[in-house]
Amino acid sequence: MNVVTVRSRRLEYSETTRQALVNSAVELFTRYGYADTSLDEVAKRARVTKGALYHHFSGKRGLFEAAFAEVETKVMGRLGEIVRGPGDPWESAIAGLRAYVEVCLEPAYQRIVVHEGPVVLGWERWRQAEEGFSFGVLRSAVENLVVSGELDDLPVEITTRLLFGALSSAATVIATSPDPRKASADVTRSIDRVVEGLRRRPTPDPTDNR
Amino acid sequence: MNVVTVRSRRLEYSETTRQALVNSAVELFTRYGYADTSLDEVAKRARVTKGALYHHFSGKRGLFEAAFAEVETKVMGRLGEIVRGPGDPWESAIAGLRAYVEVCLEPAYQRIVVHEGPVVLGWERWRQAEEGFSFGVLRSAVENLVVSGELDDLPVEITTRLLFGALSSAATVIATSPDPRKASADVTRSIDRVVEGLRRRPTPDPTDNR
DNA sequence: CACCGGTACGTACTGTCGGTATGTCGTAAC
DNA sequence: GTTACGACATACCGACAGTACGTACCGGTG
Predict the structure, then answer these.
(1) If we measure between CA atoms, which residue out of A173, A181, A144, A33 comes closest to residue B119?
(2) CA-to-CA distance for A80 and A202, rounded, in angstroms?
(3) Separation of alpha carbons A203 and B90, rounded Å
(4) Residue A145 vs residues A82, A140, A159, A193, B35: alpha-carbon distances, Å
(5) For B166, which of A19, A156, A202, B51 is 20 to 30 Å away at the CA?
(6) Residue A17, Cβ neighbours under 10 Å: how many?
């Protein structure tokens, strides 16, 4: 007798079906966007009917959330280990930025998470979801820099939002550029410059200008 | 033929009807978003039928573009004169940034232009439209700073995109914050810090020569 | 083995909404 | 007065999200 979990064949089938629906959804949402993707088509690609879809998800938005989570979890693997990697915090933060721009180039991430996420889920719901994913990682990176004294103690939440917005725009620029390689280089240069400007300077200059 | 343009009463009515439709669209798109706004409702608020709507606009997206343009033109008035105002370029640029954040706080601008614009119109079409509006203004401001030597000669297009993205995020943060006054102060502080970091420093930096 | 409860779907239908085709009325030109 | 046309209204179609209900099949119980 099996002492461990007795995963019934039934549940296995069910899980497979659900995964097929999610995969189909990610693909179609990425290609055609939320509005121009029909649930019948999603179901058809997964070789089931709408009945199965509505059994597994609450509706179109529910399916979208599942697709969102799917894309994010896949992304988090790569991103997390880079940021949490060993070495000087400044270096790994920079590496994290570059990695995140890379991630943003993924069509699925860009469309589902960055562009349509806030619109479909509503900004507040999207923010909550992001808390446990990319945004959370980025913020903890910024937090590390502030703690380790690399950044002036700006409000972490706000600064991270600004960075997040800038990086998303950056990725979109690269993705839609006719010459992505050059665009990518330019973007990296600009971002490095911005972040370098934020770095705490040894010379004290409290509210210097004017 | 008449030398003076005789604006017929007919055309006047027509223009009024069109304007009523645009106003109705701006209101409903702002409140419920693009997807959850029905054309019948838009027409009803304008006290006409869908026939009139389709006479004036190519469809739902056409109506959205008109609403987009309406919001942008209203905004441009305030924004343009600030940026093009007299005085030192750095000061007026900073003033422009603050003004733009203010603009972004307008619910209509935030929802129609910032959030749903890229999704509904598609990013490329949105970018083209923005060229003649806020983004264009922001970029010319950045260009001025580079020309006047206040900013290192970073690629203007990219840098402006980054700024644009950061500012939009900033505005969203303020708008959804439970304490908008504090959020606004924090945001201003962060932005000032970022921009200040970008400012060309008179003393040559060890890493950044020239 | 027979029976049964529930899960995992499939099928058929409804309501809403974007879009179209067509009709109508008033104004302006001749 | 007739004609032409612009500015709408009305009626309808097709697509699609969501619902109601039926069904097959698995797993447990006696």
Answers:
(1) A33
(2) 30
(3) 23
(4) 15, 9, 12, 16, 41
(5) A202
(6) 17
Residue A22 or B88, more confident? A22
Residues of A in contact with B170 (CB under 8 A): 158, 161-162, 165
pLDDT single digits (tens) B153-179: 889 999 999 999 999 999 999 999 999
Q: Which position has the higher pLDDT, A84 or A53?
A: A53
- Which structural domains are found in chain B, ordered by start? 59-198 (1.10.357.10)
Question: Looking at the C1' of nucleotide D20, which residue has the nearest alpha carbon?
Answer: A51
A167–B164 CB contact, under 8 Å: no
Q: What is the pLDDT of residues B106-144, one digit of tens each?
A: 999 999 999 999 999 999 999 999 999 999 999 988 998
CA-to-CA separations, B36 to A5, A114, B156, B192, in angstroms, rounded: 45, 21, 37, 37
Q: Please name the residue whose C-alpha is nearest to the C1' of nucleotide D26.
A: A10
Let me know: does B168 contact B104? Beta carbons within 8 Å: yes
Which tens digit of pLDDT belongs to each residue from A85-135? 778 888 888 888 899 998 999 999 999 999 999 999 999 999 999 999 999
Q: Tell me the three state secondary structure of residue A151.
A: strand
Q: Are A79 and A106 in contact (CB under 8 A)?
A: no
Residue A202 DSSP one-character state? S
Contact B193 A155 (CB under 8 A): no
Query: Model confidence at B10, in pLDDT bands (50, 70, 90)?
Result: low
- Asked whether the beta carbons of B152 and B200 are under 8 A apart, the reply is yes
Query: Sign of the C-alpha dihedral, residues B188, B192, B193, B198?
Result: positive
